[in-house]
């Protein structure tokens, strides 16, 4: 029997991409069950060539599920993941509820696939979208050169804040488009945008906002702390020095990260390019003379992390600077969850 898969949060920004991915990937699933909150119940979603009706998330709806992919808010995951496990499912969770728990592995199949087996609570976590985009490029360089320190700056798309984030940018762009009177000409769009900021603390149209998530100790944002904590856990380096500045930019899809990585050994930049070219899940686009560098408009709708602008730091032969961009809804979320679920399916169907 092929395992039964449940998708929780199937109608959200990430859930929609999960269903698209399940349509395009090798079919390892028996029944696929789409579960969501009351307001989405009854909606029809095409998945794997079938038209599936979204069902209400109830305890009974989880019966018979082997693997449950969760893309729901932290508090919903905290409540429902243990219930799904009690009903017999293994949960792959995209929220931040369990990522840092010692007895929950944080799995990126290109980096630490063996960790899926180590799941005493029946929960496997998937990392934050910014972490995933960047770590896919950093991990192979670490394997080759021994990472010592990371300094990161992110350029994060509005869809990282869900459908509401994407809708907010569209609405704000419509308000400022062609508006030369209310400040849009000089760049102060506050009057044109008005009070509707959606999930953001400031206007995103024609602006950048150096903030994502909530405030934590010392002035760091929760997003910056996730980058630090999750990278350390995925790489198995609890003392790695990392600092990040996370910035929201007026891009619909595609998180980017400018990285400064310091290693234990001297870097030969062509060697580093070769390491990245051979790394799973990475595409190198690095020919600035020809105008070729990775951008969100290239990465959107694709699976890999796109890496370019690779250069050795001028003042430190052990350090590398580069730019990486990836689709935050695919490898940053849905794709990683689907890949982890497929590892579990393989495990469950092994004779
Ligand atoms: C964001 N990484 O971009 C966070 C959550 N998906 O807002």
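Sequence proposed for the structure above (351 residues):
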């Amino acid at each position: 029997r092929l395992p039964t898969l449940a998708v929780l949060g199937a109608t959200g920004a990430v859930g929609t991409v999960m269903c698209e991915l399940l349509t395009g990937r090798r079919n390892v699933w028996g029944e696929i069950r789409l579960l969501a909150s009351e307001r989405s119940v009854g909606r029809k979603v095409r998945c794997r060539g079938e038209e599936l009706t979204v069902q209400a998330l109830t305890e009974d709806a989880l019966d018979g599920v082997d693997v449950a992919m969760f893309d729901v808010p932290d508090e919903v995951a905290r409540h429902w993941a243990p219930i799904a496990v009690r009903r017999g499912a293994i949960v792959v969770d995209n929220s931040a509820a369990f990522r840092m728990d010692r007895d929950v592995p944080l799995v990126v199949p290109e980096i630490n696939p063996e960790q899926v087996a180590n799941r005493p609570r029946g929960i496997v976590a998937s990392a934050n979208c910014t972490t995933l985009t960047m770590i896919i490029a950093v991990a192979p360089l670490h394997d080759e050169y021994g990472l010592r320190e990371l300094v990161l700056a992110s350029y994060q798309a509005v869809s990282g804040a869900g459908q509401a984030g994407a809708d907010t940018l569209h609405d704000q762009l419509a308000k400022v488009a062609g508006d030369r009177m209310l400040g849009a000409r000089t760049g102060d769009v506050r009057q044109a945008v008005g009070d509707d900021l959606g999930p953001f603390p400031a206007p995103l149209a024609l602006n950048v906002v150096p903030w994502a998530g909530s405030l934590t100790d010392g002035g760091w944002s929760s997003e910056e702390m996730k980058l630090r904590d999750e990278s350390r856990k995925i790489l198995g380096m609890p003392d790695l020095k990392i600092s990040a500045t996370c910035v929201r930019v007026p891009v619909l899809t595609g998180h980017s990260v400018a990285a400064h990585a310091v290693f234990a050994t001297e870097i030969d930049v062509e060697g580093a390019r070769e390491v990245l070219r051979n790394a799973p899940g990475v595409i190198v686009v690095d020919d600035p003379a020809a105008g070729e560098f990775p951008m969100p408009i290239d990465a959107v709708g694709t699976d890999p992390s796109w890496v370019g602008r690779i250069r050795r730091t001028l003042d430190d032969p052990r350090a590398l600077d580069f730019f990486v961009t990836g689709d935050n809804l695919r490898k940053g979320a849905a794709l990683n969850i689907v890949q982890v679920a497929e590892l579990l399916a393989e495990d469950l169907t092994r004779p």
